[in-house]
Design brief:
108 residues; Jelly Rolls; six-stranded antiparallel beta sheet; globular
């Protein structure tokens, strides 16, 4: 499959609240995530490299020992194995992630 739209993609529930829509190739995966106000994605890590950009809204992102209030246009890189957490603010956030290699399971 070469083209995707949100309506045809499988929706996954995010641990801690929210939804995500996933498209994957052999070596990379992309994900559109919606984080509702006040949702908390618990601290976790995985071996996959993750990078992304905030498309709309706001949330707090903790990567390792650093905390940032993220807003539209802000970008981040999370190396594999580094603990991280997302905390929803008062506005719904929409952000786009790219993963390498693709996740085998979508547990967190």
């Amino acid at each position: 499959m070469y083209f995707y739209d949100r309506g045809s993609m499988q929706e996954h529930q995010q641990v801690g609240g929210g939804r995500r829509y996933v498209a994957s190739g052999d070596r990379m995966m992309m994900m559109l995530l919606e984080l509702p106000p006040g949702a908390v994605v618990p601290m976790h890590s995985h071996p996959h490299e993750q990078l992304g950009i905030v498309l709309e809204g706001e949330f707090e992102l903790i990567v390792g020992s650093e905390r940032r209030d993220m807003k539209a246009g802000d970008m981040y890189i999370i190396p594999g194995g580094v603990p991280h957490q997302a905390i929803g603010s008062q506005k719904k956030a929409l952000f786009f992630d790219v993963w390498s290699p693709p996740r085998e399971k979508l547990l967190d």
